[in-house]
Task: inverse folding
């Protein structure tokens, strides 16, 4: 994952000024909260979270096809 350094904020600053975190999310789409100078938390808009949870049908079909091809022999044995 590529992280924009402009969206990083320390956990101390986020705790003291959460409105700054909210502004970052509004302006940039995400905010990364650092704990001990390491990215620890990702804050995104709720609507974006819902979108990322739903896999497009094409992706699901591709994954299904790949699993079927990979395990074809096992499925044939089970079908007998």
Result:
């Amino acid at each position: 994952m590529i992280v924009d350094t402009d969206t990083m904020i320390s956990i101390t600053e986020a705790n003291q000024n959460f409105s700054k975190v909210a502004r970052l999310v509004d302006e940039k789409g995400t905010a990364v909260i650092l704990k001990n100078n390491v990215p620890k938390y990702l804050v995104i808009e709720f609507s974006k979270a819902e979108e990322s949870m739903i896999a497009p049908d094409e992706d699901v079909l591709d994954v299904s096809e790949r699993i079927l091809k990979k395990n074809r022999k096992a499925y044939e044995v089970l079908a007998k």
Notes: The chain has five helices and three strands. The chain has a mean pLDDT of 86. The beta strands are 8-10, 30-35, 38-44. The chain has two domains: 1-44, 55-80.
